[in-house]
Amino acid sequence: MRNVFLVGDELVAGHGDPKALGWAGRVAARTLPLAPDLAFHTLAVPHETTGELTSRWDEEALRRTLRTEPEANHVLFAIGRHDVHRGVSPTMTRLNIANFLDRAHALGFETLIAGPPPGAEADNPRIAELAAVCEDAASRRGVGYIDMYGPLARHEQWAADMATGHDSLPLQAGYGLMAWLVLHSRWHSWLGIEPPGN
């Protein structure tokens, strides 16, 4: 059995999704038929910053890996938008990302980062800056990055979901779009599995 940890905030938990799947549930459902040896673990804490994520993810993951070898663990860090909402500086965000990536590397985890998606219109310029910081931090550590901001900032269905939902949460269609972006990134190669159709 190989562990796949999806670490993040309420977007990882799928809050606001009428089907209660979020993007994580949709991605797992599409992946498990291709790799039934995977065990998915959603480690979500609503409204947390990158600093708060850094301080807790490893202890939560390690208590779930007692019977697996280190090389059997993967972790996707899904960066939310709360560094923007709570005034975390770009410098501190960059340091937090470096810290959790270095910790994951030291533990032997294969890592991947998903950046923040667009949120409320007034916040989007700062979320775009946060996404750029996340992408740069991932690149500096040689870690794959999934851009959630760029494709969704221009997507009509995402905008419609954001206008209909509450608390800047997507609905069913929005989470489906996020799942599509994950599944059409380097997801399958990261997990060492053949994508469907190959």
Structure description:
- The chain is of the alpha/beta class and 198 residues long.
- It has 10 helices and 5 strands, in the order E-H-H-E-H-E-H-H-E-H-E-H-H-H-H.
- The chain has helices at 10-13, 22-31, 50-62, 82-85, 90-106, 124-140, 149-153, 156-164, 172-183, 187-191, and strands at 2-8, 38-44, 73-78, 110-114, 144-146.
- Strands 2-1-3-4-5 form a 5-stranded parallel sheet.
- Strand 4, helix 6 (124-140) and strand 5 form a beta-alpha-beta unit.
- Helix 2 crosses helix 9 (172-183), helix 3 runs parallel beside helix 5 and helix 8 crosses helix 9.
- The longest helix is centred in the middle third of the chain and has 17 residues, at 90-106.
- The model has no long low-confidence stretch (mean pLDDT 94).
- Pfam families: Lipase_GDSL_2.
- This is GDSL-type esterase/lipase family protein.
- Residues 7-174 form the SGNH hydrolase-type esterase domain.
- It comes from Demequina litoralis.
- InterPro entries: SGNH_hydro, SGNH_hydro_sf.
Summed up, the helix count is 10
- Percentage beta strand: 5-15%
Query: Mean pLDDT score, rounded?
Result: 94
What is the subunit organization of this protein? Answer: single chain
Number of strands: 5
Radius of gyration: 16 Å
Neighbour order of strands in the largest sheet: 2-1-3-4-5
Taking the sheet with the most strands, its summary is:
5 strands, parallel
Which sequence of SSEs, written as H and E, runs from N to C? EHHEHEHHEHEHHHH
Shape field: globular
Report the structural category.
Answer: alpha/beta
As residue ranges, the low-confidence spans are none
Q: Span between N and C termini?
A: 23 Å
Helix content: 40-55%
